[in-house]
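dumping this here so i dont lose it again. seq + smiles for pyridoxal-5'-phosphate
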Amino acid sequence: MASALIFYTLASIALGYLAYRAVIRLQLSRAKHPSLRGHSNWARRVARLIPFFSYDQARFFACDGAPLDRAQQRRNALRELQTRTEQQCPATLAHCRAIQNSVSDVQFTSRYRVPFPFSEQLPECFKLGSMADETRGSQVKDLDGNWRYDLSGSYGVNVFGYDFYKQCMDEGIEKTRGLGPVLGAYHPLIVENVEAIRQISGLNEVSFHMSGTEAVMQAVRLARYHTGKTHLVRFCGAYHGWWDGVQPGIGNTRKARDVYTLADQSEQTLHILRTRKDIACVLINPLQAFHPNSDAPSDTALVASDRSNGFDKTGYTAWLRQVREVCSQRGIVLIFDEVFTGFRLAYRGAQEFYGIQADLVTYGKTLGGGLPIGVLAGSHRLMKRFKDDQPVNVSFARGTFNSHPYVMGAMNVFLNRIRQPDVQQQYRESESLWNSRVAAFNQRLQDEALPLRITNIHSILSVLYTRPSRYNWMFQFYLRQAGLELGWTGTGRLIMSYSFTDAEFNEVIERFVTAAHQMDAGGWWWQGPELTNKAIKRQFLVDMLSARFPFLKSWLHGQLFNQNLKKVAEL
Ligand SMILES: Cc1ncc(COP(=O)(O)O)c(C=O)c1O
């Protein structure tokens, strides 16, 4: 009797414990974003299953079910655009071709400039990257003397215009030339730099690194070291550099077992932060406010016209406040990754823009005054790399080129320059300036009845497409032709610099509108009555499944509800 009682008691405890574990696990699952992006392991598995397929000539021009004459119009338009591009940039294209197969970055970007089924048929001149040999204010010149307004923003480095950075680099090198490449011993300018970064970050200790990725690595390592906890929380879709530890899903074959990817702006996520005991830090890229829970918009993913982003400053600020509060309550280190937003959204970056003080802040990109940089700022307590009472328990971080004299020099000029009244005034006015410029841009697009809309967070713009189409990715090539330089991700992100005058920005709008009319005249935005975003995505899925399971092809094509697309699929 007694042993039965013990047995039932133990069994009940075990069952209770298992139920408790299941609830905890379930809560974690609920805090993940329901999309594949929110489930890193599944995303990686599914990515391996997606087969490559390529549209042939016929489908390249009519995969949306466009009639024959429209397909011919597109074929002619592409040929014309190709001829003009080849005539306009022979030297640039030749130089790009020379590195095409020998520089890995170029191979990759060439492949991912447009949705993959179109990539093989796309003429080579559109796949190649670009080369430039001169800049002037807001413009960049290719090797054939073509000046274009630069909307690529040099990955976000270019906040103030290229002349500004040339000045930082020249004066910075001038200031440090005497010391040259000495490492280990610091150039005395470091004293001023550290003081300025301390003031700007609101934190009292600084470490220097070579890239934003490295600064993030160090922030996360220190958070784990000081809290003794294992897990980093990042938000779905957020980019924090290419390090394994912050990229647990697609893009990285190695599993990151100590990362939780949770949904942005979610009550369930707050619950996880309030209840779990293994969370060392929360890593926030404040730019994510522009497209919460989604990757940075890129034209390679422009399968249909359902790209959406937009910015709600009040809502995002309220969310950040909640995260700040729960992190403070739970001893979780709040890290702002300001590699992109730092020195752009405001003088004190996103911390000032949203009115939140983080525990650790990473900077990079523009802070180097045009030279490579990563910086971490934090409190003495969190930045400390050793424990007073455990001499061998250290958190080691070094780097040969950290604090390079030339970088310190250019950074010094940058930090002094942005303190000046003219730049401070630019900072004060920039948010409303960009909002009003984007409003004028949209008005113009509306007046021209173009199927385009621009959204923005401050000086970072994105193009949205308002009419269902399978060919929006073509627009990047028309824009380039019209004299607007884009990054390799195309129209997803236009990174503007403060150097644009009103007149220059109006010129950008004019060129954009010209490019859009040319695109329209090429027939790319034709829309048949049955062409909806849903139908396009359904057709894409059918194409993909047909490539994966060829024996199911005819049955799958039968599932298309759009008669035109059915005909195309049978081509
Ligand atoms: C928010 C953020 N963090 C980290 C990085 C990585 O910086 P880097 O490319 O200098 O390694 C980037 C780069 O784009 C970034 O935008």
